[in-house]
DNA sequence: TTTAGGG
DNA sequence: CCCTAAA
């Protein structure tokens, strides 16, 4: 893990003052973020936050070496959070303190050059940036050094430590961290070459997409004052964009940079006013305004994700209330590129993304951690809880400003939540988090209930996750330890809840592989009630499967239809080569046949009930032979 | 609230 | 699975 040291106090003087002005009583705030493969910082998901929360909580002041060890152990042991996979990049535990400094490990970024591929080779890469108050610098130094030493001998967790002496500038940070971490590698990268970078390349509009790698490298050099050997165009473009705009929220491509401001391809002409031209030089301290980019590819670059980066750190104090796509407070955004706004009308989801209220999903269950909630909300420190509560009643754009007294550098605007929208979202604004404990309690109970259900069906021997050829979701297998996992989740939740009344966002429903018995029930239900009677089927046939919603049934049925079409076709074709997951079993052809039959006949028959019954029988008899 | 579809 | 638009 990486421990970022406090920045030089002088460099943060401004921020400090601002914080003082804000009357921040709690100088230290932790923010958990994940470093994505492409180098962006994504606010940690609720789950991630929960898993780290207690670590952070317990060392409000000076983290002890024990804590560090615990954290490391946690990192090493918690596969849920650390298990590297293509989708999840290294994790980063970042704390933002009064100095609101943040170091990015340059090497980390270098490693990210080969985003997806390399992330696999990087076991658990976690970063902890702990910013401290000036008065604690000395002790912190020792702390960091210690951590560094520990990490040096730890292979399981790739750790790096940023030296306190590192400057704020990312360029310097790069060099510094490189120096600290592996001075033996890439010696040429850290230095600034003798020749002068070609700054002209950055003037006017920069169409990064049209530049060659060499040009991009030059632009990079002009931007950061150092050379780079990186040949990854995407990375270069991103870095350059970030560097020029001081914004982390940059699209991976397709953007134009004009006067150091990202301009959407299609919104270029709308660019209102060009505010302060930023100096390219590293010393430049002018702030970049947050670029609110309307990026069509929302999934890749959520517009609401304002990742913190070294760049932003510097300008974070001026970070204005972020905007979600529609929350523009026109007054404050006038000078912005706000023009390139999303056309999409504000939906409940967007509104809720701004809040970090945790709720349960429609089934009333505690939402479990998604396999990978792309962008979730950021942890709110318990200490700031009271402020947060208050802030809930405030308009979102300003919410950030009041958070902890220095939310300025914590773009909570980006807080996103993947999951079902909260219905009674507004009620949370009025009510104090009094229901939280109850909710958690209920969550636990629900969990137990689910487990119980699961247990009741285990002996049916059909409770085996099915692998549907038509489903490409990778057949996540529900294992026995899920119970434990859920319990732990509940505990963490409880604890987190007790500690901080931080509301959590609803998360993606835990993937629950469909078992053969469930499929049978579904098929039978369709046969009995007809296609489309999902509510009925769920109520009657899935009474004991509370975690299956009618939508689930519908989706599953759709998948079954596909499966029946593809799989049966393939088998007929003889080339039935399914790369089946060993832990899953394919849906028996017999069932697929039934599905096919039902699907074909149901829609045509006006009278669903009666015919269905007959068909059901017939199909059953037919299918049973295969079973 | 449910359904139907797109993602 | 998620998210929405329509019913």
Automatic annotation (TrEMBL):
This is Uncharacterized protein. It comes from the Eukaryota. Transmembrane segments: none annotated. Signal peptide: none annotated. It comes from Brachypodium distachyon (Purple false brome). Residues 514-561 form the Myb-like domain. Keywords: DNA-binding. GO terms for molecular function: DNA binding. InterPro entries: Homeodomain-like_sf, Myb_dom, SANT/Myb. The keyword DNA damage does not apply. CDD domains: SANT_TRF. It holds the Pfam family Myb_DNA-binding. Residues 1-25, 293-347 are annotated as: Disordered. Residues 506-565 form the HTH myb-type domain.
């Amino acid at each position: 893990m990486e421990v970022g040291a406090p920045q030089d106090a002088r460099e943060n003087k401004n921020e400090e003052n601002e914080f003082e002005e804000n009357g921040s009583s709690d100088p230290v705030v932790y923010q958990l973020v994940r470093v994505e493969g492409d180098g962006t910082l994504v606010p940690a998901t609720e789950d991630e936050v929960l898993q780290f929360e207690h670590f952070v909580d317990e060392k409000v002041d000076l983290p002890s070496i024990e804590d560090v060890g615990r954290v490391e152990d946690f990192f090493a042991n918690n596969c849920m959070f650390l298990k590297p996979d293509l989708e999840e990049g290294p994790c980063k535990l970042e704390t933002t303190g009064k100095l609101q400094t943040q170091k990015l490990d340059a090497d980390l970024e270098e490693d990210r050059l080969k985003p997806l591929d390399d992330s696999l080779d990087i076991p658990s890469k976690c970063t902890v940036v702990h910013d401290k108050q000036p008065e604690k610098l000395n002790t912190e130094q020792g702390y960091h050094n210690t951590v560094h030493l520990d990490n040096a001998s730890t292979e399981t967790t790739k750790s790096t430590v940023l030296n306190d002496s590192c400057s704020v500038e990312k360029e310097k940070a790069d060099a510094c961290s490189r120096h600290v971490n592996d001075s033996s590698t890439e010696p040429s990268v850290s230095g600034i070459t003798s020749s002068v970078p070609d700054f002209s390349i950055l003037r006017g509009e920069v169409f990064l997409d049209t530049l060659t790698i060499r040009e991009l490298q030059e632009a990079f050099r002009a931007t950061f004052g150092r050379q780079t050997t990186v040949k990854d165009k995407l990375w270069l473009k991103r870095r350059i964009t970030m560097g020029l705009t001081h914004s982390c929220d940059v699209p991976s491509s397709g953007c134009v940079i004009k006067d150091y401001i990202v301009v959407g391809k299609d919104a270029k002409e709308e660019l209102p006013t060009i505010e302060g031209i930023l100096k390219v030089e590293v010393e430049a301290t002018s702030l970049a305004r947050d670029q609110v980019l309307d990026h069509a590819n929302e999934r890749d670059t959520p517009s609401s994700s304002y990742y913190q980066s070294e760049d932003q750190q510097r300008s974070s104090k001026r970070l204005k209330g972020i905007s979600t796509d529609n929350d523009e407070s026109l007054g404050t955004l006038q000078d912005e590129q706000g023009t390139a706004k999303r056309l999409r009308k504000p939906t409940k989801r967007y509104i809720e993304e701004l809040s970090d209220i945790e709720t349960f999903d429609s089934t009333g269950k505690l939402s479990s951690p998604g396999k990978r909630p792309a962008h979730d909300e950021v942890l709110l420190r318990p200490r700031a809880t009271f402020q947060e509560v208050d802030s809930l009643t405030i308009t979102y754009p300003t919410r950030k400003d009041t958070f902890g007294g220095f939310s300025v550098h914590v773009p909570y605007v980006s807080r996103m939540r993947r999951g079902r929208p909260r219905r009674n979202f507004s009620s949370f604004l009025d009510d104090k988090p009094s229901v939280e404990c109850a909710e958690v309690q209920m969550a636990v109970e629900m969990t137990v209930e689910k487990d119980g259900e699961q247990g009741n069906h285990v002996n049916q021997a059909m409770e085996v996750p099915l692998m549907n050829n038509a489903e490409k979701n990778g057949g996540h297998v529900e294992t026995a330890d899920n119970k434990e996992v859920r319990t732990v989740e509940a505990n963490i939740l409880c604890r987190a809840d007790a500690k901080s009344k931080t509301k959590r966002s609803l998360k993606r429903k835990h993937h629950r592989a469909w078992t053969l018995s469930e499929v049978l029930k579904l098929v039978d239900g369709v046969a009995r009630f007809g296609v489309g009677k999902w509510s009925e089927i769920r109520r009657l046939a899935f009474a004991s499967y509370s975690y299956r919603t009618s939508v689930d049934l519908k989706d599953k049925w759709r998948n079954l239809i596909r499966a029946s079409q593809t799989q049966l076709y393939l088998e007929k074709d003889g080339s039935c080569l399914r790369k089946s997951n060993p832990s899953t079993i394919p849906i028996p052809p017999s069932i697929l046949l039934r599905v096919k039959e039902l699907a074909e006949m149901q829609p045509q028959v006006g009278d669903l009930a009666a015919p269905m019954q007959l068909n059901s029988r017939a199909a059953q008899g037919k299918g049973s032979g295969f079973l």
